[in-house]
Amino acid sequence: MNREWPHRLGRAVREARRRLGMSQERLGEPLLSKSFISQLEKGAVSPSVESLLHIAGRLGIPAGQLLDWSDPATRADARLALAEAAVVVEGPGGARPWMVPVETGPAPAPALPAREARIDGLIRLFVGEPHDAAERLQHALDLEPSLPEGLITMYWLGAAYQSQGRPMAAARTWEQVATVVPPPPPDPETVPAPRPGLPIVTVLRTAAWARLANLYDAIGDPKEAARARAEAGDGPPAAQGRAGAALARFLWRAAVEAYGAGDLAAAASLSRLAPLLVSGPDIA
Fold first, then answer.
1. Second label for 61, Cα 20 to 30 Å away, from 21, 205, 259, 275?
2. Closest CA to 84 of 58, 57, 114, 109
């Protein structure tokens, strides 16, 4: 076990307890002593599974949420997701508060430099520098081409190409995102094995089809526009424009509230979805 973990968990417990205005004695009762809670919050002791479940129950949050806050990679993931959504929903300057350096442990996750490059590319895209944006987004894609990060980057690379006045490059890029093979239908009699990234990939596919429909309309290809619109269906990404922007802002506010409540998983998930509802650099 990483020897820093008890200190991180202790800080997470202390922050959650203080948010509730709860004393150490009240948090521990009836199972744990005030002294134990004090030592735990200092990182001097590690809780047993039973103790961790008790503490989480007293705080009214899942034990996994406490563990998330004690994991620097999870915290970094949530902060970067919030920064990325902030660029799209709040404007290029919105990312700054979320880009405060996050402790990542002895070795940062391999995807973090790619995420930072993608955020830089988005900022350049939304300040009207599509050529620089495309370079930064391509760099992000070179750093991390695997799912789902590579697809998210490709989605925005298509937007950069469109802003450059290269509709065919944008169409080719969005077609690649849109035609990723979806997961097979679930078998109700079996419990599926976890497959990270699938929900966001599904939303990306729909958002890419919606982008393609708008693009084909703009270049005067109604047949391809109809095909893309049929593929996009009636999901939220298909209703971009003002409705999409309003829903994006709603999801963004929910993500910020989730982060403030200590739910990093929800904050990251909502932040990843919000930008995909926005149809272009200008969402006003």
1. 275
2. 114
DSSP sequence for 179-194: TSPPPPPP-TTS-PPP
Q: How far apart are CA 20 and CA 195, in angstroms?
A: 35
Terminal CA-CA length for the chain: 48
Q: Are 45 and 36 in contact (CB under 8 A)?
A: yes
Which tokens in the block code for residue 269? Answer: 């998930």
pTM exceeding the 0.85 threshold for the entire prediction: no
Residue 38, H or E segment = helix 34-41
277 neighbors 240 (Cβ within 8 angstroms) = yes
The residue type found at 173 is T
How many angstroms from the chain centroid is the CA of residue 29?
36
User: Whole-angstrom Cα distance, residue 269 to residue 263?
Assistant: 10
Distance of CA 82 to the CA centre of its chain: 7
Residue 74 near residue 68, CB atoms below 8 Å: yes
Note whether 152 and 180 are within 8 A (CB): no
Residue with tokens 């806050």: 69
Which domains, from first to last, does the chain contain?
5-70 (1.10.260.40), 72-100+165-184+197-277 (no CATH)
pLDDT in tens, 205-222: 989 999 999 999 999 999
pLDDT exceeds cutoff 80 at 74: yes
State how far the Cα of 251 lies from the Cα of 74, in Å rounded to an integer.
Answer: 20
What is the tens place of the pLDDT at every residue in 31-71?
A: 999 999 999 999 999 999 999 999 999 999 889 888 888 88
Model confidence at 15: pLDDT above 90 = no
